[in-house]
Design goal:
It is found in: Cell inner membrane. Belongs to the GSP H family. With 169 residues, the protein is of the alpha+beta class. The protein has a domain of 117 residues: minor pseudopilin epsh fold (3-Layer(bab) Sandwich), CATH 3.55.40. Helix content is 31%, strand content 26%. A hairpin with an 8-residue loop joins strand 2 and strand 3.
Length: 169
C-alpha cells in the first residue's frame, strides 16, 4: 500500500494554498493596520496621561516636543515625541514616544509652536489635537483631542465611529 502524496497531488495542494493565501493577504493587511491604529491610540493616550501626572508630581511645567512640523502630514516612521522640562527642544528627556513601530501610519498635530505644554498644578495640556491615519486609507482618521480648561484627553474618530472609538463631536 502506497502512503503519502505523489507529485501531482502535492502540486495541486501547493497551488490551492497559494491561491488561498493570495486572497487572504489584503485581509491580513487590514487586520495589522487596525492593530497599529489601536496601539498608537493607546500609546498616545498613555503618554499624555503620564505627562500630566509627571507635571503635577514635579510641580513643574513640562513640554512634549514633536519631531515633525504642525500640519503637513508626516508619512515617515522616524517621528517621535519627547517630554522635557524645557520650552526649547533639548532639555532633560523624561519620556519618549518613538514612531518607528508605527510604519505605514501618517501623523499630524495642530500645535503651531511644535510642543504641548502641561500645567504644573493640574497637569492641564494646552488645547489642540494629534491626528493619525493609515496611509492606505486616509479617511480612517483617529484624533487625540486635548481640551483646556478641563484638561481632558480623549480619543475619537474624525469620520464617525472608528476602531471602537466614538465619533468626534
Amino acid at each position: 500500500m502506497n502512503r503519502g502524496f505523489n507529485l501531482l497531488e502535492l502540486t495541486v495542494v501547493v497551488a490551492l494554498l497559494s491561491a488561498l493565501l493570495t486572497i487572504a493577504r489584503p485581509s491580513f493587511n487590514g487586520f495589522f493596520e487596525r492593530i497599529k491604529m489601536k496601539r498608537l491610540a493607546s500609546e498616545l493616550n498613555g503618554f499624555m496621561a503620564q505627562a500630566k501626572s509627571e507635571a503635577v508630581l514635579r510641580n513643574q511645567r513640562l513640554y512634549a516636543h514633536f519631531s515633525f512640523s504642525a500640519n503637513p502630514v508626516s508619512h515617515t516612521d522616524t517621528w517621535h515625541i519627547t517630554l522635557t522640562d524645557q520650552i526649547v527642544a533639548g532639555g532633560e528627556p523624561l519620556f519618549f514616544l518613538d514612531g518607528s513601530a508605527f510604519r505605514g501610519l501618517a501623523i499630524r498635530h495642530s500645535y503651531n509652536l511644535g510642543y504641548i505644554s502641561f500645567d504644573s498644578t493640574r497637569g492641564r495640556p494646552t488645547s489642540g489635537s494629534i491626528a493619525f491615519f493609515p496611509q492606505q486609507t486616509p479617511s480612517m482618521v483617529l484624533k487625540v483631542v486635548m481640551a483646556n480648561p478641563p484638561g481632558r484627553v480623549r480619543l475619537c474618530g474624525l469620520n464617525g465611529t472608528l476602531y471602537g472609538y466614538a465619533a468626534c463631536e
